[in-house]
Amino acid sequence: MSGDSDSETVGRNAPKKRLLRGIAVQAAAVAAAVHLLWAWPRLGSPPDARPYFFLAGSALAAAVAAATLRAGEYRRLYALGAGTLGAFLGGFLAWHGTDAPAALAAEPLAVAAAVVEVVGVGAYLALYRLAPPTSVAVERRRQGESDGKEGNEVEEERTP
Length: 160
Description:
Layout: H1 4-7, H2 15-39, H3 50-70, H4 75-96, H5 100-106, H6 108-130, H7 134-147
Helix pairs in contact: 2-3, 2-6, 3-4, 4-6, 5-6
């Protein structure tokens, strides 16, 4: 390693990455739960398709959260997490348009969702930035399998 700041970000279980992963997973899980809480009583409302999109988005957010806990350092996974939470946030803004501040003021679940989505997008983007390129992560996993270790335990120097 070339410096002390690099030692904080090497390997999946570096303290900084563990903290960011915990924040990202919790944000995705809370966003999924909030959207399910909003959507469940509104299912079957014919003119409104949002509950069905929220169900699908919540399932995706929960799957990304579980994969973030279990999988290796994959930039694509982190991009999917940021994109999923960003889509919730962008969808809210697109649906309400200029009335978004009024909609936030009228709906406490919307405030909770917006806060955790912003935090989650930030955490997933930070993880994306700290993760090695996908080819490096795949090579780590291969080396871990050939060494009898789990791919997440193998630590290598990041390539620039």
